[in-house]
Amino acid sequence: MEVIPKVKKPDGGPYKFLVVDDSQFMRKQIERIIIQIGCEVSCEAENGKDAIEKYKANKPDVVTMDITMPEMNGVEALRQIMAIDKNAIVIMMTAVGHDTIVKQSILLGAKHFIVKPFKPTEAARTIVSVLKKLGGQDA
Amino acid sequence: MKTEYVVPFVEAAISVLKDMCMITDIKRGQLNAKNDAVVTRGVAPLIGVTGQISGRVVYDMDTRTALKLASIMNGETFSEWNEFVESTIEEFANIVTGQALTGLNNKGIKVDLTPPVLFTGQNMKIANTKMMTLIVPLELSIGRIEINVSLQENK
């Protein structure tokens, strides 16, 4: 059985996530991963516009962001979140993974880019790795 | 419409079915071309394609197949249709199309996809009066999925 690593904040508390995806199915998949790595889901959003409102209201530690969504896409939401908080930790999780959009997202400030479909254990390891590089500790 | 446009979607569907759903016994049927309306099989997630190539892709299946697919994707059994099954099927279509378009973009063809829309119901017709539709059926252990592609090049 694969061991899923866990991660906690430098102060010892759990990372709180905002999960952004227009798919209820995908939000559930991502939430399972977040819980498996020892973190918490503080809020969800179904589109970029809602993501910005939830970010402002809840100030999550980490955001997972889909790209193709109604009302406002994830790249624009990323741009606006980074304008609110230049230290925001946003991890793109999307079906659209071509070079141009990956580069654009990273240049806008996304910390990583995970392409769907992903194996949950691999996505978990990637998220933990990203957070540990940013100061997270083994939990 | 070029017949080669259907290839990335078929390949992506096979890849996602194998990698995400562990469905490996997949038989690809013969390509069929239609100029008139297509009658869907009951569950038809549709994704729009925009950019250098535009149109739409439908992953057409019957309700029983859709329930089985949703069950596999979620690791639990769904025997009745509900909102969560709908979301799962929409996301299947999104992931397959995303993978297909990623390949096209990486070859220099700039294309994007729209959020999925799901049509359900018996004897629905999807008509593209100005574009040909190419259909490739995939026979799986859980049923049949028809990849239904209608795209044109934009100059």
Task: Throw out a few tags for this protein.
heterodimer, A: 139 residues, alpha/beta, Rossmann fold, two-stranded antiparallel sheet, B: 155 residues, alpha+beta, Chemotaxis protein chec, globular
CATH-assigned homologous superfamily of chain A: Response regulator
Q: What is the averaged pLDDT score of chain A?
A: 95
What is the fold-level CATH name, i.e. the topology of chain B? Answer: Chemotaxis protein chec
- How many whole angstroms does the radius of gyration of chain B measure? 15 Å
According to CATH, the fold-level topology of chain A is: Rossmann fold
Short description:
Chain A is α/β, with parallel strands linked by helices and 139 residues long. Chain A has helices at 24-36, 48-58, 74-84, 99-108, 120-133, and strands at 7-8, 16-20, 40-45, 62-65, 89-94, 112-115, 137-138.
Protein architecture, described:
The complex is a heterodimer of chains A (139) and B (155). Chain A is α/β, with parallel strands linked by helices. In chain A, 42% of the residues lie in helices and 21% in strands. Chain A is built from five helices and seven strands, in the order E-E-H-E-H-E-H-E-H-E-H-E. Chain A has helices at residues 24-36, 48-58, 74-84, 99-108, 120-133; strands spanning 7-8, 16-20, 40-45, 62-65, 89-94, 112-115, 137-138. In chain A, the strands form two sheets. Chain A has a five-stranded parallel β-sheet, with helices on both faces. A two-stranded antiparallel ribbon of chain A has the order 1-7. In chain A, strand 5, helix 4 (99-108) and strand 6 (112-115) form a beta-alpha-beta unit. Chain B has 155 residues and is an alpha+beta fold. Chain B has a single domain, classed as 3-Layer(aba) Sandwich (Chemotaxis protein chec). Chain B has helices at 7-19, 63-74, 83-106; strands at 27-28, 32-34, 38-39, 43-51, 53-60, 111-113, 117-120, 125-126, 133-140, 143-153. In chain B, strands 1, 2, 4, 5, 6, 7, 9 and 10 form an eight-stranded antiparallel β-sheet that branches. In chain B, strands 3-8 form a two-stranded antiparallel sheet. The longest helix of chain B is centred in the middle third of the chain and has 24 residues, at 83-106. At the A-B interface, helix 1 and helix 4 of A face helix 3 of B.
